[in-house]
Design brief:
single chain, 419 residues, alpha/beta, Rossmann fold, DNA Methylase, Chain A, domain 2, seven-stranded mixed β-sheet, 15 helices, 7 strands, 30% helix, 10% strand, globular, DNA (cytosine-5-)-methyltransferase activity, S-adenosyl-L-methionine
């Protein structure tokens, strides 16, 4: 049994002159951090509240500085635990604040939600430490969340009331607040499948720099059908080859009733491919509800990337059944889909492990973020695929978002709001 981690610890990671010293917040199981480290970043601090994640961090990175709830630490505390001498040695701050406050599946209380408040604390830390670069990763819902906040500040007072009522005002506030702090910002909504991840997972990635030149949007390494002469999306069949010699998989199981229903489905099929009587049995009352319900009774398709992995592969509305076997996909398969090393040790029980991996940033997306920042720091010009379909949605880039929020006539004067 793994002993529960109950104490924070000072970093044993050394300062690197050329290593882009990085502070990681809302670190989870370290998916983003693994990707950054593959690109040469020196992650010296992890910040994580969840006990199982903290144990995972300690098991895999025993020398990294580790703190808990972000709200309990001053900047001086953070620097102390990072093992750095001062905040001037911090090059990059990265983090994906809890997304439930902005998720389209939740109540969408935004910054009025306690989880939204940790987002505000994260902004405070970026402003006070003032690193060369920052990264914010979050769900698509951030782009349509209406600003709800308990205390007004100077930035809110300068934003026209008409904008504050608009969907997307939460993100607009974040942008304007960080621009006011001296950052040049770029962002878009990205599908992780475009970066070699065998998973269709869409996340907003915001990158800010103190440089007068923006960091380009992330450069894709793959495309759905080989567009731009890039390799095609990685499929589940390709990704799972690494697991061929693993005999035992850690997994949860279906009830006998559910398992019998899955015997009627093949790779890539879902409840809609069942006879009508079995459809009604499979969905119960949900059968009569609206919506596509494509996540119900769903087998993964061998010849496609996985849908977004969630915190549990057997939830009724987001089922992730193995393409052939009668079981949810395993912990090992979760690791492969999120690109974690197979030898990455996960603390906790099986449910804890699914949750940690399901909440993580895909390693390939982390690498893409790292490559873009490294290229920008070295004045290397990366190719911005201006017409590339970064996600399923249109008009999600920084310029398009600001234009939508402010209107064409206001766009030219957008920065004057904060002079």
């Amino acid at each position: 049994m793994i002993k529960e981690v109950i104490k924070d610890k000072i970093s044993g990671v050394s300062y690197k002159e050329n290593g882009l010293n990085t502070l990681s917040f809302f670190s989870g199981a370290l998916g983003l951090d693994i990707g950054l480290e593959k690109e040469g970043f020196n992650v010296v601090l992890a910040c994580e509240f969840d006990k199982a994640c903290r144990n995972t961090i300690t098991l895999n990175k025993p020398n990294i500085g580790l703190i808990g709830d972000i709200r309990n630490y001053s900047v001086d505390d953070i620097i102390n635990y990072s093992g750095l001498a001062n905040k001037e040695q911090v090059d990059v701050i990265v983090g994906g604040p809890p997304c439930q406050a902005f998720s389209t599946a939740g109540k969408r209380l935004g910054f009025a939600d306690s989880r939204g408040n940790v987002f505000l604390k994260y902004l405070d830390i970026i402003e006070e430490i003032s690193p060369k670069y920052f990264v914010i990763e979050n769900v698509r819902g951030l782009m349509s969340s209406i600003l709800q906040i308990d205390e007004k500040d100077d930035i809110i007072e300068k934003i026209p009331k008409s904008i504050l009522k608009e969907k997307g005002s939460s993100l607009y506030y974040v942008i304007k607040r960080l621009e006011n702090a001296g950052y040049n910002i770029n962002f878009d909504l990205y599908n992780s499948a475009n970066f070699g991840t065998p998973q269709i997972r869409e996340r907003v990635v915001i990158i800010g720099t103190k440089n007068l030149v923006k960091v380009n949007r992330l450069t894709p390494t793959h495309s759905e059908n080989g567009e731009y002469e890039l390799p095609k999306w990685k499929t589940i069949k390709e990704a799972f080859k690494i697991l061929e010699n693993i005999e035992k998989h850690e997994s949860i199981f279906y009830s006998e009733k559910r398992a019998n229903l899955y015997k009627n489905l093949k790779s890539g099929q879902n409840w809609k491919d069942l006879p009508i009587d079995l459809q009604m049995e499979a969905l119960g009352k949900a059968f009569y509800l609206g919506g596509g319900k494509t996540g119900f009774m769903r087998r993964l398709n061998w010849n496609r990337p996985s849908p977004t992995v969630v915190t549990n592969p057997a939830m009724p509305a987001t089922d992730l059944c193995h393409p052939e076997e009668i079981r949810p996909i395993s912990v090992e398969e979760y690791k492969v889909i999120q690109q974690f090393p197979l030898d990455w040790v996960l603390a906790g029980n099986t449910t804890d492990k699914y949750k940690q991996i399901g909440n993580a940033v895909p390693v390939g997306l982390g690498q893409a973020i790292g490559r873009e920042i490294k290229g920008h720091l070295s004045d290397l010009t990366t190719k911005d695929y201006t017409k590339f379909k970064h996600s399923r949605y249109l008009k999600t880039s920084y310029d398009e978002f600001v234009r939508k929020m402010e209107g064409i006539t206001l766009l030219e004067n957008s920065f004057s709001l904060f002079d």
